[in-house]
Write a structure and sequence with these properties.
six-stranded parallel β-sheet, Rossmann fold, seven-stranded parallel β-sheet, globular, 18 helices, 48% helix, 2 domains
Amino acid sequence: MALSAEPRPPITIGIVAGETSGDLLGSQLIVALRKLLPQAQFAGIGGPRMEAAGMEVWFPLEKLAVRGYVEVLRHFAEIIGIRRQLKQRFAKSKPALFIGIDAPDFNLALEAYLKGIGIPTVHYVSPAIWMWRRERLPKIRRAVSKMLTLFPFEEPLYKDAGVDASFVGHPLIEMLEAVPHGRAAREQLKLSPSVPIFTLMPGSRRSEIEHMADLFIAAARLIVRQLPKAQFLVPLATRETRDLFEAALYRRDAPELPLTIMFGHAHEAMAASDVVLVASGTATLEAALLGRPMVIAYRMPAASYWLLKGKGYLPYYGLPNILCGKFVVPEFIQDDATADNLAQAMLNLYRDADVRDRLERKFAELRRSLGDGSATLAATAVMSVLEHGHALRG
């Protein structure tokens, strides 16, 4: 009679993601880790994708999805309270490992505490030390057992500073392979192949919609005056951001705009468009990897902007420009982000086929430079930390 294999004891991994892009990365990492470690259990802060992947969500990630000094100060007491509760729960449950996904201002302090009580820590997605606040490197070294980087030039920066780091590639590379392009994308969304299509990406956070929605709507109105057949797609990630954008449409008295609000499907919307208008952030890289011409815009509260201004090392805000090392797509930040500027830049890109072709070639080069990004590589790096910490037995 064959003996049944003895079930392995569960291994708990703490995990905290602070925004929509982190929810996506976290869900992919959980799935990949479960293939290597079927008995793994996950708990902490996450979004709907991470919860669907099997994570126990103690707090929704929207609690951390605030940007800018002023916004953080407004929610400071609640955020500090959440971190205090996490410290207490993790200190009591003693997970085998903690993974902080992005959200460095929140996660690095939590990671430092957990590492100090003997829990190995992994930080997934490097803070942009190559862009600003390089003085954080000593803090990162104290807080992080291993840093997982998305861009190849980040790994040596950390190793030179004494931080164990691994380049794991960008998961978007693998994820975007299945997205249809051009005419196929339009057919999937039931869009005409001949009309001008513009995708508006005002952001994934409440604060971003509040600062960008009216601006993007005003720019769309100016475009329609010159291209009466133009159509606009607005993919939004949550019910809250959709409600906020619809409120902006009502406030701007813009029912006549040929505009379709979509729940999700951001990649398909970008792939189907002639030009994308996008708030600075991960979506700029998504548009580039899809080969789409874009205009980057960003506004934040004036106080936050002036506190941040002058602290950066680079003249760029958008990831495509940062990774290419020059302005390959136009950026309009703060006071320069006007409806006139955005509409004119979008029309210029739409009308200049040569520029669009050059951008597509440049973005193809960028895509190749980022390797074969895979959550499997990230999961393998996490496993190495677990094994090094003797967290796995037998």
